[in-house]
Design a protein that fits this description.
- Helix 2 links the parallel strand 1 and strand 2.
- The mean pLDDT is 93.
- The protein has helices at 5-10, 23-32, 54-69, 81-94, 103-113, 125-130, 132-140, 154-159, 166-181, 198-205, 214-228, 252-263, and strands spanning 13-17, 38-42, 75-78, 99-101, 118-123, 145-150, 186-189, 210-212, 244-248, 271-272.
- It starts with a helix and ends in a 6-residue tail after the last strand.
- The radius of gyration is 18 Å and the shape is globular.
- By secondary structure, it is of the alpha/beta class.
- The chain is built from 12 helices and 10 strands.
- Helix 2 (23-32) crosses helix 11 and helix 5 (103-113) packs across helix 7 (132-140).
- The chain folds into 2 domains: 5-102 and 217-277, 3-Layer(aba) Sandwich (Rossmann fold), CATH 3.40.50; 104-214, Rossmann fold (3-Layer(aba) Sandwich), CATH 3.40.50.
Length: 278
């Protein structure tokens, strides 16, 4: 069967993350391009990615892309900074559909808004170790200095629901102290979990520091790309058409509880799949 442009327009967008953090990207896509259908996969059995090797993260990501392609998605959003840093090149080389990552849009936004050329990046150990944000920012703007800080405890704190908690406050103060001391004026939230504690991070950094949320920037980039390819869905899906579908590799009930607390959409279910089969 020939795939027409009209058929492609109504095809879903695939979004994946190592777990629940990518739901912040999902939420922004919902807001920016509300007509689109979305298939979300969270690799809840193998989270976190941030402490794993590049080879392992790439293998996981390739499996997930093969799974998402079974839904005939028109594009894939790598809603995970670690996977973007470790696997994007391999994914782009192995698939013929457009792939958007969360790193490039965040890097561009930070380079646009910095005033003093001092940009901080907080992320997982793998993302910081890859230097991926530094590379992209330096391509866009030579006269900047990028300071990376791994914040590995933020992910488990967010996933435990400790978004407004003295423990999260204390750990954030410890992590961010050195970035405050070196007078950054822009801070990239380089992990998709981190926008969920944005108010805490903003309070600690102070009003003089601009927080860059790559999830928001990625949704704008996705919308722009779909427009340029004439692939935006013109019509809202019919009621009851299962516009948003969620899949995980483990603990579907826990995922649904967390997802409902973030998205406020009324997620009825998530289906567990054996991702190792792909």
């Amino acid at each position: 069967m020939e795939i027409t442009k009209d058929l492609l327009k109504t095809a879903p967008i695939g979004v994946f993350d190592s777990g629940v953090g990518g739901l912040t990207v999902f939420r922004e896509i919902m807001r920016q391009i509300p007509n689109e259908r979305i298939i979300y996969f969270g690799d809840t059995a193998r989270v976190p990615y941030g402490s794993k090797s590049r080879e392992t993260v790439t293998r996981y990501s390739e499996q997930i892309v093969r799974f998402l392609r079974t839904f005939h998605v028109k594009t894939i959003v790598v809603a995970c900074n670690t996977a973007s840093a470790c696997a994007l090149e391999a994914l782009e080389a192995s698939t013929d559909i457009p792939i958007i990552d969360v790193v490039k849009p965040g890097a561009k936004a930070a380079s646009d808004v910095t005033r003093n050329g001092r940009i901080g990046v907080i992320a997982t150990e793998a993302t910081i170790g890859s230097q991926i944000y530094t590379e992209y920012i330096k391509e866009l703007k030579l006269n900047v200095t990028v300071y990376g800080k791994a914040c590995p405890l933020f992910v488990p704190l967010v996933e435990e629901g400790l978004l407004e908690d003295p423990v999260t406050d204390e750990i954030a103060r410890r992590y961010l102290a050195e970035l405050i001391d070196i007078d950054i004026d822009t801070l990239i939230l380089g992990c998709t979990h981190y926008p969920l504690i944005r108010s805490t991070l903003g309070r600690i950094m102070g009003e003089g520091v601009t927080l860059v949320n790559p999830a928001y920037e990625t949704a704008l980039e996705l919308k722009s790309m779909l427009q340029s390819l004439d692939l935006l869905n013109d019509e809202p899906p019919e009621l009851g058409s299962n516009q948003y579908r969620f899949y995980v590799s483990d603990k579907a009930e826990k995922f649904v509880r967390f997802a409902n607390s973030i998205i406020k959409y009324g997620i009825l279910s998530a289906k567990a799949v054996n991702i190792e089969e792909y």
